[in-house]
Design a protein that fits this description.
5-stranded mixed sheet, 674 residues, 19% strand, alpha/beta
């Protein structure tokens, strides 16, 4: 070989490296034969590229890579040999070209990556190990708690250690990325070596990794809570990524036969023989998913469904069929009244755009009844108001932290709960008995929960596609139903609940049309929706119409007077003071009034209604004021304009007493008889 040519090859044979591309090589079965490389001063991409994937993209996808290091050739001992183009620090850095390594990063004066780790470069001579674990960013994660929250950003990182068989993952908050070694890796991997010096070099390394991976990392969006959410202008129903949704499943409806799925789900009404006992729960079940769009039309559904009936009437079984349908773990389908209030609220807040089941209210045990009533009252108010105070930190001073609720609630029980009027009117009661539901029809849904799961998943898809149109038409539908049926209802909250049920019934009819349903039996029954809803809600109104506190007080009192010794009325004040313990009050004939020891009278009335399973929870001051304002009792107007609603007895112990007008008592009793 010409000696001049040999010298030229020795001095000009360096191939310029291209840091953005790699070649993935299989391990050769025989040793490679090194030959003198061609002299080439210009880089040609096709000379080194065997794939369109960049190194960053391969890293983000978790591939195991083999690098093409910048190489040069030299002639020694009558043979050509290869070497890397940068010097190897003496006795510190060990190089290896084994498979599984990354494209190695370097920045002059700061750091250099090798398979053994990241080395700090301080000055021309000082090279020492900064960390033995190398890092790349695999994904950028935006975590939304719900559609109203700002995202919490995280970075998912791949870690490489020579001794590991494969890379490992860690997740670090985006704003804590620069502390990933000290805050996350250090705590999880005891094999980490991290130098206590050269902080600038470590920060420079992390910055370089960040900038190198940013253009190619995966962008992931995670919604932590289930339900309807709007992210990036797109509204969809999701099963949340939070741990409590681990056993939830939302079926893919894209390949389903829509007509068949609708028909299968509609057969739920056979459980109640196509009567209100199955229709009202059926319509109520849809509202938890439709409420997101109905609320956009400025209508709020504030009602709780109460399925009340004797033991063995299948209350819990039927509720379990349509409640929490995307929960595949049957042991987690319902809540019990033994749940603490904080735990109940925590669970209810997670059932966003779903239905919770609160099972088995009972009045059989006095203490349990009190606790159950308090929980139920709080639950009804929470559903109605859509918010409740959350648990506050001890040092919190910036007001109450409210937790928002967007769930529906079904309650089962044997007895009417003794609620306040406000809460009672927010409850839709479905009274059932052992003949209300058909066991054979119910068993079909119990043994195959996919029937209702698929039906509701398809209903959600219908809402996703048609939600805007539904929201726009609801005000007109509400006006129509209010005009047509409003005069049937005397209680505003009952009327409002009835109209809401009819609105959802109208949405179901649109859903059937979207599914292509032409079944005459189904369409014929849908035409009766409004008629059945109105009848059911009128029964609710009639049941609660006698719950005006003043009327309840007078009615119960007159049922109790004279039934036992300490509930006797003396014929005069003189007789009363002679034996007060045997009388609850006396009659004053000159004024045609009845004087009562108000504490004893109220206690007796509360006990009476308690045994009837009805609510009488108005406080004493409110009751006294109500009786006086309705001119049932006599008050005392003071000089300062205030009114005393009780009067002192003229004789005896001179206790404060409630003075009722006898003629008003007679009028109330006559109106009840009519």
């Amino acid at each position: 070989m010409d000696e001049n040519l040999l010298d030229k090859i020795r001095t000009q044979s360096t191939i310029k490296p291209y840091p953005g591309k790699i070649i993935a090589l299989d391990k050769p079965k025989v040793p490679l034969i090194l030959a003198a490389p061609p002299v080439n001063h210009e880089f040609k991409e096709e000379a080194v590229t065997v794939t369109q994937k960049s190194v960053e993209k391969r890293i983000c996808e978790g591939e195991i890579l083999s690098p093409l290091y910048p190489m040069s050739a030299y002639y020694e001992n009558e043979a050509w040999k290869a070497r890397q183009n940068f010097p190897r620090p003496k006795a510190v850095i060990k190089w290896s070209s084994s498979p599984g390594t990354l494209e190695l990063l370097e920045e002059d004066g700061y750091f250099r990556e090798t398979e053994d780790g990241v080395y700090a470069l301080k000055g021309a001579q000082e090279h020492f190990l900064l960390t033995n674990i190398r890092l790349r960013i695999y994904a950028h994660i935006k975590m939304y708690w719900d559609d109203e929250s700002e995202p919490k950003e995280e970075l998912k990182c791949l870690l490489y250690l020579r001794e590991w068989d494969a890379p490992k993952f860690v997740t670090v908050p985006h704003d804590g990325y620069k502390a990933v070694y000290s805050s996350v890796i250090k705590n999880r991997f005891p094999e980490l070596f991290l130098s206590s010096k050269a902080r600038d070099e470590l920060e420079k390394y992390l910055s370089r990794v960040y900038s190198r991976c940013k253009g190619h990392w995966r962008e992931e969006v995670r919604i932590m809570r289930s339900g309807w959410t709007t992210v990036g202008g797109v509204t969809r129903y999701v099963i949340g990524d939070a741990p409590e949704y681990k056993s939830f499943y939302l079926p893919d409806v894209s390949l389903m036969n829509k007509t068949q799925v609708f028909s299968n789900g509609f057969r739920f009404l056979e459980i109640g023989r196509f009567q209100s006992v199955s229709l009202v729960p059926f319509i109520f079940a849809h509202f938890s998913y439709a409420a997101f769009f109905v609320n956009k039309a400025h209508r709020e559904f504030q009602s709780t469904l109460f399925i009340r009936g004797e033991s063995g009437a299948y209350k819990t079984r039927i509720a379990s069929v349509f409640c929490n349908v995307f929960q595949t773990d049957s042991t987690k389908k319902k809540l019990s009244f033994g749940t603490t209030k904080p735990a109940f609220f925590a669970t209810l807040s997670k059932l966003r755009d779903q239905i919770g089941l609160l099972d088995d209210f009972s009045c059989s045990e006095k203490r349990k009844k009190r606790d159950d009533t308090a929980l139920l009252e709080a639950a009804i108010r929470t559903i109605g108001d859509s918010t409740a105070p959350a648990k506050m930190a001890a040092k919190q001073t910036d007001g109450i932290d409210n937790r928002n609720f967007r769930a529906a609630l079904v309650v089962t029980g044997e007895d009417n709960p003794p609620l306040s009027n406000s809460s009672y009117y927010r409850m839709i009661v479905v009274p059932v008995d052992k003949q209300s539901y058909e066991n054979d029809a119910l068993v079909k849904f119990e043994t195959d929960p996919t029937i209702m799961r698929n039906y509701m998943a398809l209903f959600i898809e219908f809402l996703r596609v048609n939600g805007r149109e539904i929201t726009e038409c609801i005000p007109e539908i509400a006006r129509e139903y209010n005009a047509k049926y409003g005069r049937n209802f005397k209680v505003d909250r009952v009327r409002y609940a009835a109209v809401n049920l009819m609105i959802v019934g109208d949405i179901i009819r649109r859903y059937a049309d979207w599914c292509g349903v032409t079944d005459h039996e189904i369409l014929n029954y849908m035409s009766k929706f409004n008629e059945i809803i109105v009848a059911a809600m009128l029964e609710n109104q009639e049941e609660s119409s006698g719950l005006e506190p003043d009327v309840m007080f007078i009615y119960a009192l007159m049922q109790l007077i004279g039934t036992r010794d300490n509930l006797m009325l003396a014929e005069s004040e003189v007789i009363y003071i002679a034996n007060e313990s045997s009388h609850i009050g006396f009659i004053e004939k000159s004024t045609d009034t009845v004087w009562l020891r108000h504490e004893d009278a109220e206690q007796a009335v509360r006990s009476y209604w308690d045994k009837q399973g009805k609510a009488f929870t108005i406080t004493s001051p409110k009751l006294h004021k109500l009786l006086c304002e309705n001119e049932i009792s006599l008050g005392n107007k003071l000089a300062n304009g205030k009114v005393e609603y009780l009067r002192k007895a003229k004789k005896g112990r001179r206790k404060w007493m409630l003075v009722l007008k006898h003629n008003k008592i007679s009028q109330i009793l006559d109106s009840i008889k009519e």
